[in-house]
Amino acid sequence: MKNMALFLSAIFLLSGSTRAQEQQNRFAELTNPRLIDINKLPPHAAFTTYHSAASALAGDRERGSDYLSLNGTWKFHYTEQFRERPTDFMQPGYDTTGWNTIEVPGNWELQGFGDPIYVNIGYEFISPGFPQYLQAPNPPMVPEAWNPTGSYLRTFDLPASWQGKRIVLCAEAVKGAAYFYLNGEFIGLSKTGKVPAEFDITAQVRPGTNTLAVQMHRFSDANYFEGQDFWRLTGFERDVYLYAQPQTRVADFEVQSSLDESYTDGVFHLGIVLQNDQTSAQPMTVAYQLTDRSTGKPQIVAQGEQTITLDACNSNCVKFDATIDRVKAWTAETPHLYDLLISTRNSHGENCEYIPARVGFRTVEIKNRQLLVNGKPVLLKGVNVHEHDPLTGHYVTEETMLKDFELWKRYNVNTLRTCHYPQQKRFYELCDEYGFYVIDEANIETHGMGYDRRKGGTLGNNPLYLPVHLDRLHDMVERDKNHPSVIIWSLGNEAGNGYCFYEAYRWLKQRDASRPTIDAHKKLSGRKAENYRQSHEAEFIIYEAALRQLKVLAPGKKLPATSKLNTEIEALISEKNAAYNTYRTAKAEYEQLATAKRNAEQILHGTPSRQKKHEQER
Asked: How do beta strands 437-441 and 486-493 pair?
C-alpha cells in the first residue's frame, strides 16, 4: 500500500483543480499531457455492495444494491466544429429544443453523428494535404477547428433511501475527453478510455430530480495513446450508472490466492481497505467467509473477523490469512472457484455491506524458460480479442460475449489477450467462470509515433509522458488484480520502448510480483523474436545498473528524467541493440557506462575528481 500511496500522490499532482473546467481554457486542457484527469477517483477492484448476503450471492445488483442505471436515451447535440459547441448547456433550464437523442451506451458514429474512421498505424486526425487534419504527428496537439464535440443531457431521480450515503457516478468506459456536470456544477474530467471514470457526487446531488450533463470531445492528447488497429469511434462505450455506499465502508480489497510449494494447499491472503468519511471516529467490524460450493453442500473453508476504529476522514487496511488444505486449484481446464463474502457491521451491530467475489487458487511462474501454471507447463492457444460489434460498435453486450466464449471453447482456445486495452469487467468474471487464461493489456498504443527512441519518436522514451503510462497501467491493475484468469500483465502494444516502459515495469513488479509481465512491442518470430527478447532484457539490465551506479555516486539523490545520463544510456542501448544476443553479452556492456557515469557525477556534484575516488574504493 505504501508504493500505491506514493504513486497516487505523484499522479494527483498532475490532476487539475475544479477551476480547470472554464470553457475558455478548454483546448489548452485537451492538449495538456500533464492534465490526465480532474477529480477522478482512484481505481479499485471491481465490486458491488449489497444489502444482504442472499442478494450478494445471487448477484442481483438491480434489486439488491444501491444501483441506478443511467443507460438509455439521452438528449444530444453534435457539432463537427469545436468553436460551435454549446458552452452553457449544463445550466439548469437550458432549452434543448432542436436537439437530437442518442442511446447510451453507444458510439456517435453508428448513430448518425460523424464518420467512423478505420486506421491501422496512423492517427485518425492526421492526413497530409487536407487542411482540417494535422499534417504529421505532433503530440500533444490535435486539430482545434475540426474537433467533433457531443453534448449530452439527461435527468434522474435520486432514490430517497440514498440520503446520507456516499454517492458515486461511474462511466465504465468513455472514448473521448469528457467533462461532467451535475445540476450546473462541474464534476470532473476524464481523458482515458476503456477504464472506469468515477466521480464522488455526494456534495452536488440533491433529493428528487437531478440534471446530468456531459460534453465529450473526439480528440485530445489521449488519442496519441489509443492508436489501436481498429475502427476509431467516440462515445460512452460501456454502462453508465450511480451507486451508493455507507459513509464508512469498504473502499477496496485485494485477494492473493496461490498454492504452496508442493502445489497442494491453498495460501490465502485478503487485504480490505476500510474508509471513514465521517467527521468522527467510527468503530467497524469486518468479516469474511470463503466457501466451497462445488459439492452441492456449501462448506466454509476459511473465515475471520476483526473490529477496528477508523479515525475521522481516514482509512485503514485489515488483513486476513489462511491455509486451505488440499485446495481445488484453478486452471483453464478446471476453473474451480470459491465464493468469498466480505461483510461489515457498525458499532450498533447493524449489517452495513455485503460484497461477493469469486476466488481461484493458482500459481503462475516462469521456470527454465517455460510458463507454468500450478507447477505444470501450459501451451497457450490464444486469440486477440477486440471489443467490437457490427451493429453497436464498441458497445458489446453480455449476450454477444457469450457467443464468443462458446466459439472459443468449441475450437479449444484457452487464452485471450485483451488487445489492446482492458475489457469490460464482466469479461473477466466470465473468464474466471468458464476457464480462460487472460493476458491483460493496458490501453497504451502509440504506434503512429513509430519506435525511434530519439526526440520526436516513441512516447515510450519521453519522460513527459511517464505519468500517462503509469496512470493507464495503474487503472488496469487495480481493477483486475483479483481475477485468477489474469495470468500475465501486458504494458501495452506497439508503443516502442524506453524510459517510460522501464519505469512502468519497475512499478508493476513492485506492485504485483505474482504474474509475469510482457511488452507487446513487435510481432516477430523465430530467431528475430529471440534476439529481440534478449535485447529488451539487456536494455532493462543496463538501465537498472545505471540506477545502481547513480546511488553510488549520489546516495539519496534521484536521477532527473531528462538528465544527460539518461541520454547517454539510451545512446549506448541504441548503438549496441543489435549486438545483444545473450545475457552474458549484456553484462559485459556495463563497462561502457563509464562515460555516462562521469557525466552524471558532473551533473550531480560538479567535482569530476570524485569519480576516480569511487572507482578506487570499489
From this structure: parallel
As beta bridge partners, residue 199 has 169
What is the reported pLDDT for 581?
39
- As a whole number of angstroms, the distance between CA 217 and CA 83 comes to 11
How many beta carbons lie within 10 A of that of residue 473, not counting itself?
26
Model confidence at 455, pLDDT cuts 50, 70, 90, reads confident
Beta bridge partners of 487: none
Whole-number Å distance between alpha carbons of 455 and 459: 9
DSSP output for 397-427 = -HHHHHHHHHHHHHTT--EEE-TTS---HHH
What are the angstrom distances between the C-alpha of 521 and each of 329, 372, 414?
A: 33, 23, 23
Give the pLDDT confidence of 236-262 residue by residue, as tens digits. 999 999 999 999 999 999 999 999 999
- Grid cell at residue 531: 534476439
**In angstroms, how far is CA 91 from the centroid of its own chain?**
32
pLDDT in tens, 302-339: 999 999 999 999 999 999 999 999 999 999 999 999 99
Whether pLDDT at 406 is above 80: yes
Mean pLDDT value of segment 463-491: 97
| CA 586/CA 513 separation, integer angstroms | 24
Chain mean pLDDT for the chain: 86
Instruction: Check: CB of residue 79 under 8 Å from CB of residue 148.
Output: yes
Q: How many residues does the chain have?
A: 618
**What is the value of pTM for the model shown?**
0.84
- How far CA 349 is from CA of 4, 285, 523, in Å, comes to 32, 9, 58
Question: Exposure pattern of 577-587 as b/e (b: 16+ CB <10 Å)?
Answer: beebeeeeebe
Tell me which residue of 611, 578, 606, 610 sits closest to 595, measured CA to CA: 611
- Beta bridge partner(s), residue 253: 272
Nearest alpha-carbon partner for 618 in 527, 568, 545, 552: 552
CA distances from 202 to 184, 277, 303, 547 (A): 15, 11, 34, 45
